[in-house]
Design brief:
Layout (H helix, E strand, L loop, with lengths): L6 E4 L5 H19 L4 H23 L5 E5 L2 E5 L5 E12 L2 E7 L4 E6 L6 H13 L3 H4 L1
Antiparallel strand pairs: 1-2, 2-3, 3-4, 4-5, 5-6
Helix pairs in contact: 1-2
Length: about 140
């Protein structure tokens, strides 16, 4: 499998987590609105819900990563200015047709969701095949 070609792709965040967060926040607001508490007591939980949900949705829609490369020499993340960051795979999960990657660089830990709305099915298939045969860096230590 070491002779397999490298995998490289542009990355943009999936819309699925942001939509899920927005739906959960909307349902929370509805639940607070219909509860039996006096209207004055409903304002604080509603304000807290909005104060936490809005930044979380914005974070879910942004990513510092613009591209990903995976080859014989390991993982590389690319920023928007195309500067390269070597990365180490901490963990991965395959859920249905989605691939979730946790990659650690010198600066931060990035979590990337490759879903049908932000990546090609062939890229996800090739990644699943390569991840199935390649151990994590923490497994080899």
């Amino acid at each position: 499998m070491t002779s397999a070609p490298a995998i490289g792709f542009d990355y943009r965040p999936s819309r699925l987590p942001a939509r899920g967060l927005a739906i959960a926040a909307a349902l929370s607001l509805v639940a607070i609105a219909v509860c039996g508490a006096p209207p004055g007591l409903k304002l604080a939980p509603m304000a807290c819900t909005l104060a936490m949900a809005i930044p979380a949705v914005r974070r879910a829609r942004r990513s510092r990563v613009a591209g990903v490369g995976y080859g014989a020499d390991g993982w590389t993340l690319y920023r928007a200015d195309r500067s390269q960051l070597p990365a180490t795979l901490l963990s991965h999960r395959i859920v249905g047709t989605c691939v979730l990657l946790r990659l650690k660089t010198d600066h931060a830990t990035e979590t990337l969701l490759l879903a049908p709305d932000n990546s090609d099915a062939d890229i996800r298939r090739r990644l699943r095949m390569r991840l199935a045969v390649r151990p994590l860096a923490s497994d080899t230590a």
